[in-house]
Amino acid sequence: MPSGYIDIQSSDEKGTFKAYFASRPYLSDLPRPPGIVIIQEIFGVSPFLKEMANRYAAHGFAVVVPDLFWRLEAPLTELPDQSETATQKAFELYNKFDVDKGVDDIAASLRWLRENENTSGKTAVVGYCLGGLLAFLSGCQLDIDAAIGYYGVGIEKNLENKNMIRKPIMLHFAENDGFVPAEIRKDLEESFSGNDLVTINNYSGCDHGFARTGGSNYDKAAAEISDTRTLALLKKSLA
């Protein structure tokens, strides 16, 4: 299946939603690739997320980036820049967003990957900002092989299912992140101090969004280190 937009049926039969799909060409003599759902920031299916999907596809994964704002604004939310107008729109959608429905739509995206004849059935999620929270919730609630969250906001308020974690979760945080300050990161480290499945990485001198290429807080060194750690976990967990 070529890269591009696909339609995914929602779990509650409320309709279909768009998602960006990326994968290397399928060859019958090669193993089927594992699947990854990349979970959006508040800017929707942004160019950055499509870039990341293409990068992970080049490493041999089949990748889906679902539009999780589709219930609020159809047919596709893509805010391509970080202008004041785009940021205002993004926060308007974020403030109306139903987190539980978002997890449902991630589950539907995972199902699409597992049912696709060109994927292996092994799956993981990678999320940024809002997606970092959703990645953590997916790691607690869904049947996946790994979950990775970048600077997830609000994880500390959603620990009621932490004892349900059965597969690896990796969380990346920035030292200077005002949305996830030091006291919250310390509390999270203490909450998971006895759980070998949860790894928390902190990046000194960085701010929220440090892994977002083209963003005002992009930190190339930290992004490369965090992405290397993410890729290593994905390859290990989805082998």
Q: What radius of gyration results from the CA coordinates?
A: 17 Å
Taking the sheet with the most strands, its summary is: 8 strands, mixed
The fold-level CATH name is: Rossmann fold
SSE pattern, N- to C-terminal: EEEHEHHEHEEHEH
Q: What is the share of helical residues?
A: 25-40%
Shape: globular
Q: What is the count of β-strands? A: 8
- Indicate the proportion of strand residues: 15-25%
Number of helices: 6
Q: Biggest sheet: strands side by side, in what order?
A: 1-2-4-3-5-6-7-8
How many angstroms does the end-to-end distance come to?
21 Å
**Low-confidence parts:** none
Provide the structure class: alpha/beta
The CATH architecture is: 3-Layer(aba) Sandwich
Structural domain count: 1
CATH class: Alpha Beta
> Average pLDDT, to the nearest integer?
93
CATH superfamily: Alpha/Beta hydrolase fold, catalytic domain
Summarize the structure.
The protein has 239 residues and is α/β, with parallel strands linked by helices. Helices cover 34% and strands 19% of the residues.
